[in-house]
Amino acid sequence: MSPSNFYDxxxxxxxxVISVASRRYTNEPTLLxxxxxxxxxxxxxxxxxxxxxxxxxxxxVLLTTWPFPTSSTMTDPTYLLSGMVVSVGMQTxxxxxxxxxxxxxWASRAKVEESEIRDRITVWACCNISAQR
Length: 133
What we know:
Layout: H1 3-9, H2 11-22, H3 31-47, H4 54-65, H5 78-91, H6 114-132
Helix pairs in contact: 1-2, 2-3, 2-4, 4-5, 4-6, 5-6
């Protein structure tokens, strides 16, 4: 998938991926710190808008696995996000991978593709792993 297609699919997930990748970008050592505030705001804004998507769940999994630097655990939102990742995952029906269409009002009754079911299973497993670690 091209970067522009990825961006069009999910702006928050795109920027979370860029943020995670910026950890190793040595040409601009302050990039992660500069991105952290803006990307965090984008993620929180996305979470306040319902319905949620599988892509926002993927963004949360990445953020709980590679959280932004923080000055103390008191200001670290990782604990809150790790709980939310399971809740949002259930809200989007990831816990029932073959029935994802039942969790949206815009769903067609067409058969769900096997690749979509596999992706939903993987994302649901990642939700639980990130919440437990």
